[in-house]
Amino acid sequence: MASISTTSANQNPIEKQREQAGNKQSSTQFDLGITLILNSWPALNLAVQSSWGGPSSSDKRDWLCGAISDLFVDRPETDAEDIEDVLIQVMNDEFDVVVDDESAGEIGRRIMEVRMETQMGDFTRVTRMWEEWKAKGGAGATVGAFRKVEVNGDDDGDDNGEGAEDEDEEEEDDNESDIGDWADDVEMEDAPVAVTASRNYSPQTEAPKRESPNEIRRAIDGPWERGKFLPEPIVDEDGFTKVVSKRRR
Question: CA 241, 34, 218: angle at the middle one, nearest 5?
Fold first, then answer.
C-alpha cells in the first residue's frame, strides 16, 4: 500500500497542493479537489501503476488533473458529461484503456459537486477527501479494491447462490453483498470512487503510441487542445447555439 511522505524533501505532489490550498481560495481548493478525486479513481490508478501509459504514466495523471481544471477556465459552462467525455477519451488515447463501467460519469459528477461547493466557499468535502486520502494510504488502496472487483467481474452476483456458486460464496464471506452492479452493491469505506465494475480492458503496453502527422496535442509535453475532446458549438437554423457532447452525438 502506498504511503504519503510528510518530509519536505520528498513531499507528495498532493501534499504540496494541500499546502497551497491552505489560503482557502476557492479556485485552489477546487484544484485540490480535482486532484484528490482523480487520484482516487481506481481505473486511472491501475493504469498508472501498470504503466499502461508508458514510463510517464504518473505524469500523465498529473497533467490530466490540470487539464480538467483548465477546462473550466476555457469553458465555464462545462458540465459532468463533458468531463466524462474527456476522461473516457484520455483513458483511451493515453492509456489504451476502454472505460465502459460508468465510473467516468461518477467522477464527473463528483467534480461538479466540488466545484459548486468551493464556489460558495464550502471546503468541507475537500477537507474530508484529504483526510480520507491520508487515512487510506493514497492510491494503492483503491487499486487493491479495483483488482478484487475485476477478478470477480465475470460473476453476475445474483442472489440465487445455487450449485457451484456455493464455493464462491464461502470465499466471499467477508463481503456484505455479492459483487454485481458496482454502483449499487459494492462499497469500500464509504468512498464511492474507490469501487469499479469489471471492464473490457484492451491495453497495449508493448506497442508505442502512434499519432498522425498533424496531431499537435502532446499531453504532458505540450498544450492541451480543448477541441481535441469537446465539440465546437453548433448553431441551428434559428440562430441558437448549442454544444453537443461527443458521447451523445
Answer: 70
